[in-house]
Amino acid sequence: MLDESAKVLARTRSGPSNPSRIGVEAAANSLRDAAAAALREAGAITSEVKAICAGLAGTARSEFADKMHAALAGLFPGAAIRVLTDFELALAMLPPGPALVLIAGTGSVAYGRGADGKTARAGGFGPAESDEGSAFDVGRAAMDALTCEPQFGKHDSDLSRQILRQLGCANWEEVQAKAHSNADAVFPRIFPVVAAAADAGDSLAQSLLSNAADNLANLTKNLAETLGISSAPFSLALTGGMPGRSTFFDAALGSKLRESVPQASLSALTNSPAETAARLAFELANSAQGMSS
């Protein structure tokens, strides 16, 4: 939360806010809780809020973006509202010019900007259509390997026992039943176990993460070619919950990206997504004020 001079007044956290995965009502409740905590910390009230910018996963589809916009408008009457995706927000954190962001978390998406300023994306349509190389994809692939391929010894391997322990399940039949009813509560939770096992030398875990790195690098390469920036230098940023969780995975992904997009220069996202959203809201408030004056 920023004041009228763009000074940070409060930083808060709340629960998940992806409406396509948890529903619009639950996502709106998370945003409401975060906003309420920020207002308390700043000693401000709702009517003082001039603009809101929300960078939310799951809002690439207009139906969810529109519903979240309406929910925020209801929470903050009179405020200017902007809803954008998490990957649009991440790209806004990079310097001007050709740039690409690869988000690898529960889902996966690559989003970029060409030299002409036009933007495009690859992936990010959910696990039924895309999300290749994501934590969800790794978890699903791990279950497939451990339940369908006998060479991995589904009942006896350390990796299998660690995953069952992580999920609180007695056997893989129970995991499959849970995944059938709520896949998001199962597959992404397998990734941290696979990440730790890969660093400990488990061959199946390393194979799963190598495949994920391949998929993410291909996603990046395809988008760079679409944007026409694959043969010239451009900024590339990695974000999401997967980078930094496994030394093996980070090395594999770095190697695959250097092969796939050799012209890319890795750039750090120096600001937090929340602060970037707040600064976009600050610009939105100034723009709205200028139009009304």
What does this structure look like?
The two termini are 24 Å apart. Helices cover 51% and strands 12% of the residues. The chain has eleven helices and seven strands. It is of the alpha/beta class. The protein has a five-stranded mixed β-sheet with strand order 5-4-3-6-7, with helices on both faces. It has two domains: 19-89 and 272-292; 96-269, ATPase, nucleotide binding domain (Nucleotidyltransferase, domain 5, 2-Layer Sandwich). The model has no long low-confidence stretch (mean pLDDT 91).
The share of residues in helices is 40-55%
Beta strand %:
5-15%
- At CATH level 2, the architecture of the largest domain is 2-Layer Sandwich
**What is the CATH C level class of the largest domain, in words?**
Alpha Beta
Helices and strands, with pairings:
Elements: H1 19-22, H2 24-42, E1 51-55, H3 62-75, E2 80-84, H4 86-92, E3 99-104, E4 108-113, E5 119-123, H5 135-148, H6 158-167, H7 172-181, H8 187-199, H9 203-227, E6 234-239, H10 247-260, E7 264-266, H11 273-292
Parallel strand pairs: 1-2, 3-6, 6-7
Antiparallel strand pairs: 3-4, 4-5
Helix pairs in contact: 2-3, 5-8, 5-9, 6-8, 8-9, 9-10
Brief synopsis:
The chain has 293 residues and is α/β, with parallel strands linked by helices. It has 11 helices and 7 strands. The chain has 2 domains: 92 residues; 174 residues, ATPase, nucleotide binding domain (Nucleotidyltransferase, domain 5, 2-Layer Sandwich).
Question: Which key terms come to mind for this protein?
Answer:
single chain; 293 residues; alpha/beta; 5-stranded mixed β-sheet; 2 domains; two-stranded parallel ribbon; 11 helices; Nucleotidyltransferase, domain 5
